[in-house]
Each structure stands twice: as C-alpha cells, then as structure tokens.
Amino acid sequence: MMLLHAKLQEGTFPNCRKMADELEVSTKTIQRDIDFMRDRMGLPIEYDQLQFGFFYTEPVTNFPSIEVSEGEVLALFVARKALAQYKGTSFEKRLEAAFRKLTDGLKDTFSFSWTDVEEGISFRNIGATVADLEVFEEISKAVLQRRELSFSYKKLQADRFVPRRIRPYHLGCIENQWYVIGYDLERKQLRTFALPRMRQVRASSERFQRPADFSVEQLLGQSFGVFSGNGRHRIRLRFDAFAGQLVGERQWHASQKIEDTGKDEIEMTLELGSFEEIERWILSWGSHVQVLEPKELVERIRKTAGGIGDLYSPEQRRG
User: Which of 170, 199, 229, 317 is the Cys-Cys partner for 273 at CB 3.0 to 4.6 Å?
Assistant: First the structure.
C-alpha cells in the first residue's frame, strides 16, 4: 500500500495488472488494497478510463498513520519479546526491521513507557533451535508458492544425508523447532522434516496443488508434538500431589482429561497416535508419575527406566 501511495503521488496511474506483476501477487490482492485505502483509510482514489490506472483526485501529502490502542501496542511488544530466542542470529536484523516499520507508523496518541515493559516482561526458551535463514526463506517460499522442494536430509540416528524431494504443504514451529510437512514424492506419503537437519535446499520450478482435504490440525491432532503416528492409543497416567498441581495448571493436549482422585493425586487421560514424544515427557517427571495404561507403554517406560537405573548401578560407577 505504501508503494501504491508513492505511485499515486507521482501521478503514474498504477493499475492492478502492473502492480501485481511488480509485487508478484495477484491482481485481486492489489484491488483489495486499493479498496481498503479508499474505503477504510479515506484516500481520494479514482480510476481514469483514459489512462487505464488509478489516481488521487486531490493532493495527499502523507500516508495515514495506523491508529491503535495502548493494549494493542503492548500486545505487539509482547510478540517482539517472544522472538528474543533469535537474538544474535541471522533472523535478528530482519525481525527488528519489521517491528521498526510497524511501530514507526503508529500515531503518538498516548503516553507509554517502553522501558517499563522491557524490564517487566521477558521470555526464556530452553532448547530452542534456529534454522539457517537461507534454508528458512527457501522453504517458506516453496510453501507459499507451492513449488516442489529438493534437499539432503539426515534422520535421527542416521550416519549420512540422503536426497529427498517433497511437495511442501506446511511450515510450522512446534516446541521451539521448525518443521516442514510435505508429501514425499518417492515414498508416496506425508512426512515431517526438521529444518536443522536439512542441507542443500532448493525450490524447483515444478508447481503443485495442495490437497483440499489437507489439515495440519487434523494431521497433528493425535500427536503430543510433531510425530502423528498411525495408531490410536488411550493413555492413562497418575501423578502425585507435587506433579499433579503442575500438570493441572497447563493444557498439554486437546484430548486431555484430568480427574482429581481425592488422594492428593490426579489422573490424566489422552488420545494419541504414537508413544514417541509422550514417553519422553513421562520420563521427565521421574517417580512423580505412573503409567496405568496401555500395557505397551507401561512396558516401554519400565524398560527405559531399567536402562537408566543400570547406568547408575555400582558396577557402572566403578567402571
């Protein structure tokens, strides 16, 4: 819209087709922006049939400022603080520039102490990873433009990178990690890839149509993180008084149900498609949680806990 405003000021009679080509968007997007500038921002825009373009019917000196409330500015600032995990990385300068452009357009209609908020609000992310900026941009471009993607990928516990080719459907940040979800053209099924494990990422000229029935919410609805799995497991856990209070304070999964047993304990039930991530989460609570069902998960936890115990046995310590 700022570019449209500049061209209207210059009197070059911009039109939807030319602006769409210049900005690499659709003509409908340009028309929506023009309608917004005219109808919502009150700018005097009309179309000249002879010049085949839009023009200002009267002088416009400045682009209208964005009017927001103090609460909205605070929300914007909190969002900025939430991105603090990218400080010192290749993302930092671009994020700062984006927020600076947003805040520079605000009208100074109220008194607001940025220092107070800076000192009063913070975010701390443990174990956050940052994907390379070039990799992120190449993948996000492929997702938005619906272009096939080729790259080398190293799976967990693998000893080498292997070539992969996908149709990227969705790019998401899950548990402080960026993932791309797409249709693997060789394996003929949906797969999920972690950006830090991707190398030599290239978007091709081959385009695709995202399936109308694809839904990331539905795909990950049975997962405890990013691994969706193909099963359907009813998981029941019992937490003691210490863990029960902490667990009960948060929403861990959409399917969770928490019941107070009346013995200073709680029971949680979940419906998940796999055990991969829930197993690690259960182990993180140590002796404060007990798996009640299913038997398969009970056995997995027992086996893992036994292995941990073996690492700290007197024989191992002597070794």
Answer: 229
